[in-house]
Amino acid sequence: MPHQDAIxxxxxxxxxxxxxxxxxxxxxxxxxxxxDDLRERCPWDRKQTFESLRHLTIEETYELxxxxxxxDLDEVGKEVGDLMLHMVFYSRLGSEAGRFDAAxxxxxxxxxxxxxxxxIYGDVEAATEDQVKANWEKIKLKEKGGGQSxxxxxxxxxxxxxPSMVKAQRIQxxxxxxxxxxxHAGQVWEKVQEELGELRTEIDNQSDRVADEFGDVxxxxxxxxxxxxxxxxxxxxxxxxxxxxxxxxMERRIAIAGEDLASMPLQEMDRYWDAAKExxxxxxx
Length: 285
What we know:
The protein is an all-alpha fold. Among the domains are: about 5-10 and about 20-115, MazG-like (Helix Hairpins, Orthogonal Bundle); about 230-280, no CATH class. The protein is about 70% helix and about 0% strand. The chain has helices at about 20-40, 45, 50-70, 75-95, 100-115, 120, 130-145, 165-175, 185-205, 210-225, 230-255, 265-280. It is extended, with a radius of gyration of 25 Å. The N and C termini lie far apart (about 60 Å).
């Protein structure tokens, strides 16, 4: 029989977002009960594996990212719930395999947080964000050096499947954690200019190294963004959204005018493009 007490959502007298510790624990227990019921009684849930859930988890992560970029906190809450379900599902699969369950997972992350925050739970001094990050990376490096396969490198923890721009950010953050970094933003900007010059040379020479030099330019720009405290992935996504909104507004105006975008001269497109930017209040962007 399924857990009958999991069916009805309990009445919570507390205001939304301000529930007590007991209410939060009860809600998590309800999710664990529902997960048990689904795994035991639902044909779809019984069929799932780590591998089959992987791509769904990635999709849910991007849906959460969209909600955050939209500043839609109601949707953020829903997407956090979807991801939490996935974490509980993986914990259930781990329990069935006899490797870990929800308690192991939660205590594992708690142990990790305590160990990696010695400025909170120990006697280490870390007064700034940079000091905290540097300590974090050094501790991680020491942890990974204890395996049977020998010492691990600083960059071993960067997932291979990360999108390239995010991976570049993580690589730069990790090497910064061990002191391999520029001193100030001016040096990085000079590096950007140097890489642009090298790219221009390879283009002029019609070299087969154009793609390599283009990658170097992007890597240097991502590094420069870090010194400006700009997230390059988020910045590019904002530009993507602005462009999409402008182009769709341009299409709408062209359609209203009864004209054909595909056969329109570029000069005429530019006129509609400028009108779309002005209509959207993006003339300065």
